[in-house]
Amino acid sequence: MAKAPAITYSCTECGWTTHKWVGRCAQCGEWGSIEEESAQRAPQALAPSSPAEPITQVSAEASVKQATGVSELDRVLGGGLVPGAVILMAGEPGVGKSTLLLDVAARAAEQAAKDGKAPVLYITGEESASQVRLRAERIGAMNQHLLLAAESDVSRIIGHVKSSKPSLLVIDSVQTVADSNVDGAAGGVAQVRAVSAAFVALAKENSLPILLVGHVTKDGSIAGPRVLEHVVDVVCQFEGDRHSPLRMVRAVKNRYGPTDEVGCFELTEDGIFGLSDPSGLFLSARNRTVPGTCATMTLEGRRPMPVEVQGLVVPAAGPPRRTTSGVDSPRVAMMVAVLQSRLGFELDRRDIFASTVGGAKASEPAADAAIALALASAYLDLPLAPGVIAIGEVSLTGELRPVSGLSHRLSEAARLGFTVALIPPESGGGGPKLPGGIQARPCSDIVDAMRSVLPLDG
């Protein structure tokens, strides 16, 4: 008698296989990711669809990037949309994913109408077409060249594409689309895998760029199987705080450009707008000097971002508290220990508060000098000299250590109007390239930095 084929089970997250079903993967620890694999015959050799040719003779004209009309998104994508590329935009609910892509679709439709190209197709699976129209009216995204349809079946979406032949396809969201030939509800592992494979094949066959909206889980990872991130060409993470209008888009994966670029947006009631200069959100008014403030320049990917650090030191009524917001709590604790040990500040009986302006994040070591100077200024009740920015890592001995990208940081600081920069000595092997309008003061340690910008006596 013929032997029955062995049944195997595999994990949809990491690919681990087993001969019996289990609830949890033994390799990656994911629950509910084990699925049965049907027995398949070995593939047979077929005639190739097109002959192989030398890579030097392959035309690159079909993959020229097209600008989206949103400069901050083009910065993240590496110049624009590549025909046939599938881009996944993931983020938390309410962060502005649908608003941004609706704005991108309207701008692309306007440009397509001017160039005589095919219209843009926007597919919504979460809302009705009338609800999307209300949002489009609110943000000014109304355009006759923008087609709108409410569909949640992948076959019907493909039918829309075949009939309208759009120049850009936006799908909101991939977790709401289902394939009738696959068992399970929309958003499940099998459904997301089948739907994503269908969209990738659709994009490649028609040289059609596709923008997908993706949901995230409670821990911030993209919902669905990991294969979704593997099959798409670009994965963008949409980040933002509900209490701040700032939104950031960064490319986690990009086959056509860098993955260290960051796009800045401001989410308002009238829509979402790109911020080529977000310094106004992170810096308070600098026409007056007050104790306990110091500015620094952090790097988000390759983009320098100004951050103002504020410190407050007050006598403690009980056990001393250490409260931080926007800065790394362990690094603040290290700066407090350095100030107390190396400079003799009596901080063990003081409440210490450290925060940033505008919900900015300053977690990299380059912000150490600014944190230390802000706390020292608050403790001594002496304001820093005007126009000062501090960049450098502070070691436990109090020394200032070099940081990466110092020339890039100083150029942005000079553009924003800072006149004095406290930097580590001999940074970048021979010193950084100084732009005009800013004076660099190399400081060997935090004491030297304090003497440079604080009116100390003795």
TrEMBL record:
Segments forming domain RecA family profile: 62-216
A GO biological process held by the record: recombinational repair
Region (Lon-protease-like): 351-458
SUPFAM superfamilies per the UniProt record, alphabetical: P-loop containing nucleoside triphosphate hydrolases (SSF52540), Ribosomal protein S5 domain 2-like (SSF54211)
A GO CC annotation given for this chain: cytosol
InterPro entries named in the record: AAA+_ATPase (IPR003593), DNA_repair_RadA (IPR004504), P-loop_NTPase (IPR027417), RecA_ATP-bd (IPR020588), Ribosomal_Su5_D2-typ_SF (IPR020568), Ribsml_uS5_D2-typ_fold_subgr (IPR014721), Rubredoxin_2 (IPR041166)
One Gene Ontology molecular-function label: ATP binding
Chain location of the short sequence motif RadA KNRFG motif per the record: 253-257
Keywords assigned: ATP-binding, DNA damage, DNA repair, DNA-binding, Hydrolase, Metal-binding, Nucleotide-binding, Stress response, Zinc, Zinc-finger
Annotated positions binding ATP: 91-98
Comment block on domains: The middle region has homology to RecA with ATPase motifs including the RadA KNRFG motif, while the C-terminus is homologous to Lon protease.
NCBIfam families, alphabetized: sms
Function per UniProt: Plays a role in repairing double-strand DNA breaks, probably involving stabilizing or processing branched DNA or blocked replication forks. DNA-dependent ATPase involved in processing of recombination intermediates, plays a role in repairing DNA breaks. Stimulates the branch migration of RecA-mediated strand transfer reactions, allowing the 3' invading strand to extend heteroduplex DNA faster. Binds ssDNA in the presence of ADP but not other nucleotides, has ATPase activity that is stimulated by ssDNA and various branched DNA structures, but inhibited by SSB. Does not have RecA's homology-searching function.
PANTHER family xrefs: DNA REPAIR PROTEIN RADA, DNA REPAIR PROTEIN RADA-LIKE PROTEIN
Family according to the record: Belongs to the RecA family. RadA subfamily.
UniProt protein name: DNA repair protein RadA
Species this chain originates from: Ancrocorticia populi
Encoding gene, per UniProt annotation: radA
